[in-house]
Design brief:
The chain has 497 residues and is of the alpha/beta class. The chain has a domain of 239 residues: Nucleotidyltransferase, domain 5, CATH 3.30.420.40. The chain contains 19 helices and 21 strands. The strands form six sheets. It has a seven-stranded mixed β-sheet. The chain has a six-stranded mixed β-sheet with strand order 3-2-1-5-12-11, with helices on both faces. A two-stranded antiparallel ribbon has the order 4-7. Helix 15 links the parallel strand 19 and strand 20. The chain starts with 6 loop residues before the first strand and ends with a helix.
């Protein structure tokens, strides 16, 4: 029997597609639909999308979800909230029409702009880990200003993916505080620093960026009547979300210190709350009040993870429906250390802890003994070593990690999950809604923002449910120590090449 109480809509605009889901008060996903959209790679280091595909996909997914529920259930919907990739930006006119392709989060064309910003060494940078990334909105704005000046000048605003979708839902331009604090150099209690913006060459930022910052969980506006009537919905509020991985953190039930949230898909994002403003070398932050009042967020990440496995599948033509099963069977027969094959997982640069956008992917140690399964194993181990390097940075800086809560597509690969657990020596918990961690996070925000639950803690207690925990084989953890050291040395040896 379907719960006929309060229901909540959530939408996750990911790298490869948009997912819309409907959840009840207990966190059960009653309906969900995903629509894919393409990514284009015009030049090395660049990645773009057509923003029209985002809205078209959303409407199709939303229509499919609402088409499978009853009129009574529609009336029970209390709110909608969305999350999206961060610093996927698009210039728009006054009506919100795109003036150019969207520059995706993984696009690192703004390397030189980021380098110049970091060389200024402004005080603002201490709030984001002493450096900006070329992935972020600010360096990309500078790149547009310097390389596509006609588009830049013509743009009414240059906005993020989430901003555009929220505008299409409400006709209101509002930026998420999560994105602003974590990626825009917005500082809690201060706002934007005019001196910093002037020094980096964005003295006109107020004319190009959204400066209306709305905290996560607060109302952006109400669903516009055109959409209410088209989908026969109640007059529901649109609750502010944020970065997909960060909202996935909420969906994993990580709403306080101690646990690490790991969103493991195309890229990996590792997030931790702390009640202190702890500086951590090589980590983004500390982001004070970015998500939860009174808590500081620390963020790490690996740009390339699941995307490298996809690359591997394409290289070896393993794209059939049975391909992944074949890949898993093959890799289980390869020993720890992949018979000496080593890889670096920096196929789009390194996000943390090196913050090196010039780093590249590496595969070394090849012999005639190696086959495609060795490549697969070496890639999974490389990403796992990158994960351990991040964990080590946290713990060396006095930030304890009791366990990791994982979500995303990689959690379905038991072989890889065991490698991750063995390499790091940490237990990994997978929740019931691991397929929908970001969707659940959005629906939890909808539940809190609409007043059904008083806090995220209450929402997490009622809507998040653990499924299983993967324990590390500590004997294997010891065996991985030498390959991990070789991974670290390989980066240092090739850093200047």
């Amino acid at each position: 029997m379907v719960n006929q109480g309060h229901l909540f809509l959530g939408a996750d605009f990911g790298t490869q597609g948009v997912r819309v889901g409907l959840a009840d008060e207990k966190g059960s996903i009653l309906e969900a639909k995903e629509i894919k959209y393409p990514i284009h790679y015009p030049k090395p280091g660049q990645a773009i999308q057509n923003s029209v595909d985002w809205w078209r996909g959303f409407e199709e997914a939303l229509g499919a979800v609402l088409g499978n529920i009853t009129p009574t259930q529609k009336k029970a919907i209390r709110a909608i909230s969305i999350c999206a990739t961060s610093s996927t930006i698009v210039p728009v006119d006054q009506e919100g029409n795109a003036l150019d392709d969207a520059i995706m989060w993984m696009d690192i064309r703004a390397k030189e702009q980021a380098k110049r910003i970091n060389e200024i060494n402004h005080e603002v940078l201490k709030y984001c880990g002493e450096a900006v990334s070329p992935e972020w909105l600010i360096p990309k704005l500078l790149w547009l200003k310097e390389n596509k000046r006609e588009i830049y000048d013509k743009a009414s605003l240059i906005v993020e993916q989430i901003d555009l979708i929220n505008y299409k839902l409400t006709d209101i331009w509002a930026a998420s505080k999560v994105n602003a604090v974590c990626k825009w150099n917005y500082i809690e209690g201060i706002g934007f620093d005019d001196d910093y913006m002037e020094k980096i060459g964005l003295d006109d930022y107020k004319n190009k960026m959204i400066v209306n910052i709305v905290p996560m969980g607060k109302c952006v506006g109400y669903l516009k009547q055109e959409l209410v009537q088209r989908y026969d919905l109640p007059d529901i509020p649109v609750i502010q979300g944020g970065i997909d991985a960060h909202i996935g953190m909420i969906g994993m039930g990580v709403v306080g210190p101690g646990k690490m949230a790991a969103n493991m898909g195309t890229s990996f994002v590792q997030l931790i709350f702390t009640d202190q403003d702890v500086p951590v070398k090589g980590i983004w932050g500390p982001y004070k009040g970015a998500m939860v009042e009174g808590l500081t967020l620390l963020e790490a990440g690996q740009i390339s993870a699941g995307s490298i496995i996809k690359w591997y599948q394409n290289i070896f033509n393993l794209n059939s429906p049975e391909a992944y099963k074949i890949m898993q069977e093959e890799v289980e027969n390869v020993p720890i250390g992949a018979d000496g094959l080593r890889a670096l997982d920096f196929f789009q640069g390194n996000r943390t802890p090196y913050k090196d956008s010039y780093a590249t992917g590496v595969i070394t140690g090849l012999t005639l003994n190696h086959d495609r399964a060795h490549f697969h194993r070496a890639i999974m181990e490389a990403v796992s070593f990158g994960f351990k390097n991040i964990v080590k940075n946290f713990e060396d800086s006095g930030v304890p990690i009791t366990k990791v809560i994982g979500t995303g597509g990689v959690t379905h690969d038991r072989t890889w999950m065991q490698i991750l657990s063995d390499v790091t020596g940490k237990e990994f918990t997978i929740n019931e809604n691991t397929n929908y961690g970001t969707i659940l996070g959005c629906t939890m925000l909808s539940a809190v923002g609409s007043g059904v639950y008083d806090s995220l803690f209450e929402a997490a207690a009622n809507m998040v449910h653990e499924k299983e925990t993967i324990q590390p084989n500590l004997e294997n953890t010891k065996k991985y120590e030498k390959p991990f050291e070789e991974y670290l040395h390989l980066y240092q040896a090739l850093k200047t090449v």
